[in-house]
Design goal:
heterodimer, A: 580 residues, alpha/beta, ABC transporter transmembrane region fold, 20 helices, 10 strands, B: 597 residues, six-stranded mixed beta sheet, four-stranded antiparallel beta sheet, 12 strands
Chain lengths: 580, 597
Amino acid sequence: MRDYPLLRLLPYLKKYHARIFWGVVMVLGTNVFALVSPWILKETIDMFRHPFNRSMLLTYAALIIAAALAEGTFRYAMRRILIGVSRDVEYDLRNDLFAHLQLLPASFYQKHATGDIMSRATNDLSAVRTVLGPGIMYSINTIAISIMATVLLFKISISLTLLAFLPLIVVSCAVKKFGAIVHTKFERIQEQLSRISTQVQESLSGIRVVRAYNGEQAFIRQFDEANQEYFRRNLSLIRTSALLHPFNALFMGTSSVLLLWYGGRQVIQDRITLGEFVAFISYLAMLIWPTIALGWVVNIFQRGAASMGRINQLLDAPPEISDHSIRSPVSIHGRIEVRELNFSYNGIPVLHDISFSVSPGSRVAIVGRTGSGKTTLVQLLGRLYPVPDGAILIDGVDINKIPLKQLRKCIGFVPQDTFLFSESIRDNIAFGDIDGSAQRVQEAARVAGLEQDIETFPHRYDTLVGERGITLSGGQKQRTTIARALFVQPRILVLDDSLSSVDTYTEEKILTRLADAARGCTTLLVSHRISTVQNSDQILVLDQGRILERGTHQELLRRGGIYADMFEKQLLQEELDVDQ
Amino acid sequence: MNPHEDEILGKAYDSRLARRLLTYLKPYRRIAGAAVLLTLAASAVQLVGPYLTKIAIDSYILRRDLSGLNILALLFIAFLLLQFVLAYVQNYMMNWMGQKIMYDLRMEIYCHLQRLEIAFFDRNPVGRLMTRITSDVDVLNDLFASGVITIFGDIFTLAGIVVVIFAMNSKLALVTFSVIPFLFLATVLFKIKVRQSYRRVRTAIARINAFLQENITGMSVTQLFVQEKRKFTQFDGRNEEHRAANQQSIFYYAVFYPLAELIGAVAIALIIWYGGSEVLSGSITIGTLVAFIQYSDRFYKPISDLSEKFNTLQGAMASSERIFKLLDTPVRLLNPASARLPKAVRGAIEFRDVSFQYKENEPVLKHVSFSLSAGEKIAIVGATGSGKSTIINLLNRFYDVTEGSIFIDGIDVRDMPLDLLRRSIGIVLQDVFLFSGTIAENIHLHNPEIGESQIECAARIVNADRIIEKCSDHFQHRLNERGSSLSAGERQLLSFARCLAYNPAILVLDEATSNIDTETEILIRDGLNKLMRDRTAIIIAHRLSTIQNCDRIIVLHRGEIREIGSHQDLLKRRGIYYKLYQLQYKEQLGATGTNGS
């Protein structure tokens, strides 16, 4: 499979095997009728040598049109079927690709740039489609017409055929050779282009440094050099590639001359008729295109194989979180237990020996510096990464044994980065259940403190978010994500630093309403802000992946450790803010 | 940012854009002229083939003249060679010209970008600017290298066929040409339809892209809220739209190609029917009949090529519009018309009632006034967003003040030549930007005035020589993009060396806050002290040691100066600085105490 990435397409093609069969039949039909026309021409011309009825001319003319009609019908069907199948396979493949992407874990998306994944799902897929459509169609077509036309040519004259084929063989070899040279030179061009791109990207990203050091002229000079080198490499390619078409024309022409000269002699010597001679010219012309197409088709297949390889890499990325749900769905109350949880990411240990338990309906806060592992800890609860067996339990059941869907449905997640879809506010809030009632949406918005903001939006709940709609402030975004999590009426609510863009006053109001609305709901709160966490039932202080302190606000203050220190500093900061 | 911006197809032809594009051809008008002539010549030679076939049949084959046939074959070969040479030279010239124009355009865009103000780069993502300089320029290459000039060739070929076959037999020519209007009509109709469906396909693919972009970014949200099914249905809808648009375009292609062949077949049928009876009545020869059939085969290509060029033209118009829009962005930050030159910049700085806003009604600095005498060192402290970095950005005119003025040695910075101003100010930013290239290149930044000895000297003074010695090839060691192989502290030291090599009168430094290991920390502190020596310095300080080395301290809060004075003064005042000191620097002192560094 690795050596022949295109083999992966076989199951896709199999689905359409009946249509492909008929497509091939159409190719054969097309070519049979394409060959009729020159034969009629031959008959016509040979007729002139003997006295005959003029009405025969009309018959021949009608035959030519009839053949063209038949050929056209077959060709129409051929294109519709074969190219159509390629679009269908493209569609299937793209859907499969997206479905697979939906299974991949967060770690995959951290390793692969969005642009890279997108380019595979569009550009590479398009290259593969070209193989399936034009690639396959022209291959079959080329083979069919070559065999049929050659048979007819041999029938007319073996020696003439062999002679006329000589230059065509040269062309075919030359196209291949040219292809190789062009490929190498083209790679050198691409290499230089990527150098230019890097230069532009760097000098624009670092534009402040460039300006600060008066570097404009120097960077322009440097760019000029790269640009000139790019020009030189292009020119080197042009020197070769500009030769290709004239070269082909020369050898094709030579073939015609040989035909004219040797064929003419044969006519003079009465070995073949003039009609056969003219038909020969037409058949030979039919072979010219396939000869050129050969190199082109090889190229399509090579590119397609490379692209398919890149697509296969995506399709082969393992969906790390496999859902081997053993348990049938249970009703979840919200007791969380973490037992000696150790977790490493990319071989780097992130969490060490984490143990704590949360009773249903209580509020637990996790505080700590950036990079202390807070986010990873709460993400594990939603199984965004593979969780070690037996390390996290909900209602006494290992979360690896709870069906993934059920697990996630009972957790209302408010992630750190406030991602919203460019849909309406309503659809964003009702994201977890798009058919939810308007009342539920409004209620979620109210608790999240978003209701008044929405009143001011141009189309209220139908206002679009994002590029095509309005731009929300950081705080509005955060409150929308909170409403989204509340909307699903979760048993467990996870707020990952979700109030950082909201001022302390609004924060307090939201937290109070939350306590009211989400009564009985277990809440996990991640924050740097003491004001956010101080009323929690339990506070865990995380540092470098370990729990260093735990207790209530009062207990931790009395202890005089990290938490107390943080509290003191933040109090000062708040005082400074109020002072001014 | 609008992700669809690049997908919008403009008008196929816009005379304003076309005229402007033609100006790029101007420096190469001789070559362009020659290429046109060669194109015409090559098209003319191409027409000879069928005519020679006619002569061969009528004069030699039917008359059984073997030696005549030999001569004709040789003549034919000569024409082929001529055609080969003409086509190659023409091809080469046009591509050469195309590449030259691309080179010119790229330089023009790049130079223009280098003149645009910093605010422009805040608004325009680097990725989009790169697209202008690479892909958009490449699209124009197609136009110059194969588009414009070969149009002449196509028209000439068509005209040539008309002339030749009329000369052979005008009646038969008229009969043959009766199909041309149909061919033309079919082609034009086809192109209109294909353009529409092409647009539909482009829109569909843009929608797929936008959807993918959004959903890959928000994949974890979809997964957490178990909405995979619904999102998949949405994706399927867009995918289906794309397939439908393509099936439609397949239909047009599937109809057009057979139709064009059918029209060609009608032409041949007409030639056989009408021409055949002419042959029988002896008014034309068999050779003429064959030549007519061969010529009629050649109608189609130029007509189809012409409409193909139309697509190239359309793409080129859209790209050139985007490029010209960029080139037309006015350069706002100009060099003063009549610059005032100080004899030598000594480094006295004055901010007089300076206010600044990046966005309307969101002032970042409010009536800031302070002054430094030459050689004085001042530290600016304040919370994030208090306006500290803006002071740097205004001093060396990354932006111009909204109100008030900034003076260096008594001259308004807006009256100084930009290069002199910036040469006088050495900037070290918190996030050190290193380019991919050698260490030496990153220090001299391609300034030819900075020699090897200066680089080495600068590196040694600020303690950067130690990290350089650790690298293979020393100064010639190549750094990766952004210098990612170095630690934050090492990058900082390199930026000190860069600054010192330029030997500015004024030093502006945004101190790094990132964690740096103790050993490097000592090197940096020492390097910084040496860097500040004999210079006026404005330092956005985060470390107590740096602050204490300054003569005065400015406390900036929400865009206003709240306190100004020496360390001791400000501590006595028990104001904001005192609190900040308690809050942040106390800990630093404690940490240094226990770590023993």
